[in-house]
Amino acid sequence: MRLKKIMPDRIDIFIKELNKKMKQGGRIILAIDGECASLKSTLAQALQTKYNAGTIHCDDFFLPLELRTPERFREPGGNIDYVRMKEEVIDRFKESEAIKYRAFDCHSMSFAETVSVMNTKLMIVEGAYAMHPYFDKYYDISVFLCAKEEERLRRIANRGQDVERFINRWIPLENRYFEACGIRQRSDYVVDTTQYTGLTDYINTLKV
């Protein structure tokens, strides 16, 4: 990861660099990290469709109940099971077979079905904590998404989620992780998605 100025990049510049890396051959591992409701999943889905990529969702690796201790939550980025994520996913990117891992369901607080993701030329790791220092050195390119707070809260409300819970719980945890680990500074690209209301359609207009 290279250190860069904290200035937002245009998303087409990021896509241009991704295309360049794709043409160089070999498997490309992309990390999409960033603020809540900054369109991380939307971007991942658009890129998955455009490039026939495989996508790993960090939400599948939140902590099971037995690991949710006060000590763990005091650790920046500690509310993701980064050890399991590295063992079940990151360490297997070099293999040719499909990646299979156990998805954790935060609603039932239990492991759900086994997820199978094709190990394709472009592999995407998407979600908050995607660039956790425990495994960010394995990425070939990374992008940090952000947006104005009022727009992010509007998106959360439109998804039917508990805005107050995000304000009081999840946003502070994410911010502490971003600041303590220097996530934004270490990302290859920083993209402000406040104005990208039709992100998927826009991605589809860009050349591969």
Description:
The protein has 208 residues and is α/β, with parallel strands linked by helices. It has a single domain (27-194), classed as Rossmann fold (3-Layer(aba) Sandwich), CATH 3.40.50. The chain is 37% helix and 20% strand. The chain contains eight helices and seven strands; from the N terminus they run H-E-H-E-H-H-E-E-E-E-H-H-H-E-H. The strands form two sheets. The chain has a five-stranded parallel beta sheet, with helices on one face. The protein has a two-stranded antiparallel ribbon with strand order 3-4. Strand 3 (99-105) and strand 4 (110-117) form a beta hairpin. Helix 2 (40-51) runs parallel beside helix 8. The longest helix is centred in the C-terminal third of the chain and has 19 residues, at 163-181.
